[in-house]
Structures are given as structure tokens and as C-alpha cells.
Amino acid sequence: MSDLPQLSPATRIVDTVQGALRDAIFGGSLRAGEALSVPELARRLNVSRSPVREAVLGLVAQGLAVEQPRRGVVVATIDVNDLVAIHEVREFLEAGAARLCARRIDKAGAERLRHILAEQKRAVKEKDAGGYFRTNSQLHGAIAASAGNPRLEQIVRTLENQMRLALHRVASDERHIRSGYDEHRRIVDAIAGGDEPAADEAMRTHIASTIERLRGRVGG
After folding, report:
1. DSSP string, 129-191
2. CB neighbours of 217 closer than 8 A, spacing ≥ 6?
3. 77-122: pLDDT as tens digits
4. What's the mean per-residue pLDDT of the chain?
């Protein structure tokens, strides 16, 4: 079991603990199926048990951990079939988010999308799969945030968290990240232009194409 980083001071220790655990999950220090023992995590993070307990429950709410009989809370396990199922849900939710975003986004929000897209372009050019998937999460999160519907944003972010747990399954596929970037560019162009139907269609096409690429990985 890898050591967890020491925590830096923060206004809410629970937020800091939860951030450290999220980073450990996404970074692989806490592996899928690994038990999230409150006493052990408190010891490793050098904090009391109370904020760790609250942070672990927060991870369950975010879809990053699950409660299992007799084992307690463990890191969630997401396989490629789960990824396909998640994307089938995302196709409907995020198409609506893109449409709302095209309707409501302001100039600063559009510039934020352009900035993320530029970072993703560099990642694709440098064949940096980690950079691609980081900006992928940022872009979809920014679109959901600019849709102006907090409930929709919360659901999208939960699905995004679960998706990130298994992205290693496609991270080495250069065609996936090239195609993903091209699809993201069309989404951002439609949103920035205020074209709601085009934004909806571009997002649907992107998610549907991702599902097909993932199914190809299942078949492989």
C-alpha cells in the first residue's frame, strides 16, 4: 500500500482529506476494490478519524467508492462494460447540457472552453494520454457548469468521476484521443456560436462515437 501525501492546512479539513483520497484513487495509490479503512487512512494522513469518515462517505456519494457487506467501503471498480453503460447515460444528459450551455454561456465561459481545448490540442500533439483525459474531464465539467443547472451538473460530475476510474483502458489508444479532440472542437464551436441544435447534435455524436470505440475495446 503506497503512502498517502501529508495534508496541507485548509479551511475545511474534510475537503482536504477528500481531495487527497480522490487524487490517490485517480493516481492509483488506492486501487479498485481496496478497502477504505477509516482508522488506517486517518493514520496514514495523520488526522483524526472524524474528517476521514466524512470524506469517505463523500467519495461514495461521488461514485468513487461503494459500500460492501462485511467489507465496508471500498474503491469502486469500473470495467469497460461499465464505461459503455455510463456513456449511454451521458449521451442523453450531456447533449442537454451542451444545448443549455449554448443558450446560457457568457464570453468568459466560452473563452474557458477555448483555453481547455487549446491545452487538449497540445496533449494530442504530444501524444500525452494523461493530458488528454485531464482536459477531457475539465471540458465536460466546464460545459456542465455553464449549462446553468446545478442538478444536471452534479449528475454529470458523478458520472465523470466513475468514468475516470477506468480510463486506463483506452488511454493508450492514440486514435481515441485524436478523434475525441476533433469531436470536442466541433462541440465548442457550436456552443461558442450559440447554436443549440448543433451543440446538442455534436455532443450526441461525440458520446455515441466514444461508445463505439469502447465497445471495440470490449470486443478486443
Report:
1. HHHHHHHHHHHHHHHHHHTT-HHHHHHHHHHHHHHHTTGGGTTT-HHHHHHHHHHHHHHHHHH
2. 80, 169, 170, 173
3. 888 788 888 888 999 999 999 999 999 999 999 999 999 999 999 9
4. 89
Cβ density class 154-192: b for 16+ within 10 Å, e for less? ebbbebbbbbbbbbebbeebeebbebbbebbebbbbbbb
Q: Which three cell numbers stand for residue 77?
A: 471498480
Q: What is the pLDDT of residues 30-47, one digit of tens each?
A: 988 999 999 999 999 999
Nearest-CA neighbor of 147 among 189, 93, 193, 197? 93
Residue 67: helix, strand or coil by DSSP?
strand
Distance from C-alpha of 181 to C-alpha of 160, rounded to nearest angstrom: 17
3-state DSSP call for residue 218?
helix
Angle at 110 between CA 210 and CA 101, to 5 degrees: 60
Angstrom distance (rounded) from CA 27 to CA 89: 25
**Cβ count within 10 A of residue 153:** 17
SS3 content of the chain, % helix, strand, coil (to 5): 70, 5, 25
Question: Distances in Å between the alpha carbon of 160 and those of 125, 141, 167, 189, 202?
Answer: 24, 8, 10, 22, 18
